[in-house]
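#onboarding

Welcome to the new folks! Below is a worked example of what a typical request in this channel looks like: someone posts a single protein sequence, and someone else replies with the predicted structure as tokens. Don't worry about understanding the tokens yet, we'll cover that in week two.

Example request:
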Amino acid sequence: MKFPISLIVLAATAQAHYRFSKLILDGTPEAKEWVSVRQTKNYQDDHGVTDVNSADLRCFQMKGSAGSATVAAGSTIGFVADQGVTHPGPVQFYMAKVPSGKDLATWDGSGNVWFKVAYLGHTMTAKGVDWPTYTPTILKNVSFKIPASLPAGDYLVRVESIALHQAQQPGGAQFYLACAQVKVTGDGTGSPGPLVSFPGAYKVSDSGLTLPVYPVPTSYSPPGPAVWTG
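Example response:
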């Protein structure tokens, strides 16, 4: 049975929103919300950010976290989406090193300090774009490997899921994001980059922030800088 495009868009619109409130360490989610993750403004209703020029695009932070997680460079960490990643679109991860003299618990992550460490990818099909977090199964946990050459230090780790179900035109993308506080150990000597700021890394006109229903897209590139792999 074939369904009208309008019904498909309506169904996607009605899906639940989500928040990233727990870090995954050694394959195990934290027992409670907001332990290492800074509490986000959508902690009650799971709404997303829609303005790429808003300071909320950085960490969507309502308040900081007193806690942090210790992880080794080269290890895998992740985030839990409370309802699962229920909207189609790319999932990316960024990190920012806390400057000397600043405190991990209070640093706001402003300036050209963020570098992309992972993009979970996509697959082009005859029907458009398939997302590994959405097709064939909606994932609840999303993870990435910290580059082994990342220097030790205190970092913010930012997860973002860019929902494109209402992004047929510029300005329709929704961002579901959060920042965790981590202490990275190891002897890495890499130089992460390119460095970008939030807001500033994206423009509403970026091609990766729109996804037409028709004509069926034949290519897709996520917004932001290239992934730093170490």
